[in-house]
Amino acid sequence: MRIIAILALIASIIAAGCTAAEPGQVMPSAPQAPEADDNAPQPPALPAADTTTVKEVAGGELKEPDFVYPFIGNEKAPVTVVEYADFSDGISSRMAFAQINSIKRDYVNKNKAKLVFKPYPLLKDGRLAAEASLCTWEQGSVPFWAYHDTLFQFFVHLDNVSLHNYVSRIPNADKAEFAKCMQKGKYAATIQKTLDEGKAAGITEAPTLIIGSKNLTGETPYSLIKKAIDDELKANGKAGQMITGNAVFQPDVFSRLRQSIASFLKQIAA
Predict the structure, then answer these.
(1) Reported pTM
(2) Cis ω before 41 (30° cut-off from 0)
(3) Is 247 exposed, middle or buried (0-12, 13-18, 19+ CB in 10 A)?
(4) What is the overall mean pLDDT for the chain?
(5) What is the phi/psi pair of residue 209, to 5°?
(6) Does residue 10 carry a pLDDT above 50?
(7) Which CATH class is domain 71-269?
(8) What is the bridge-based pairing of β-strands 113-119 and 79-85?
(9) Which residue, 268, 260, 266, 269, is CA-closest to 142?
(10) Which residue(s) pair with 210 in the sheet?
(11) Nearest-angstrom CA–CA distance, 3 and 81
(12) Measured between alpha carbons, how far is 262 from 251 in angstroms, rounded to an integer?
């Protein structure tokens, strides 16, 4: 009995320690988070998750450099003449040896203008020749302009065999590289893009010359071309050193090149 009484006493003491607080007594509680302080400095925001994939960086974000069309003259010339011409077109051919040569003589040769050539084959027969011309352009300015004049000289003979035959006669042209370029159709898409962009800009005729804001279409008299260039010169200032591609191209070199091309064409025609 005495043991039971002792156990009962111990139990009552333990129970007394677990009773609720007396009225007015505050029982201790778990610590609470402090209220937000609007004036406290805020931690920096976490960066957004990077969802860019390797595929997007490699194929979707990087941009191909713009294609540089054949040109001759000072890259910083005050006037740029852009010619859209079809190698299979008789009028484009006549212009190449008359008005265009006069532009070279009077303005390109004197550091006043840059001439940009855009192959624009509105006729089906000129499509392959347009591609071929760009295959020579990647070999340099001199092979291109020699080939350019050859194609216009023989504009009624632009079949695949003839195109390869002509390039084999161009000094310093690599016939093997040209053949690879043609076989791959390397510039087919470039020619199509040129046609698409030209038509979107309202160019429906070859030849067409763009000089400033003026579009001169068809077999334009040289007097009108000259006036358009002179008007641009008055508005744009002076030219600097003459350049073609990445090489300095002085007027006397241009003159010699023109003579060598003329001699070359005579040899082919003979």
Answers:
(1) 0.67
(2) no
(3) exposed
(4) 76
(5) -110, 130
(6) no
(7) alpha beta
(8) parallel
(9) 260
(10) 82, 215
(11) 120
(12) 17
Name the residue type at position 15.
A
The residue length of the chain stands at 270
Question: What does the domain layout of the chain look like in residue ranges?
Answer: 71-269
Whether residue 15 has pLDDT greater than 70? no
Contact by Cβ (8 Å): 79, 212:
yes
Q: What is the pLDDT of residues 39-72, one digit of tens each?
A: 433 433 433 433 333 333 333 344 445 789 999 9
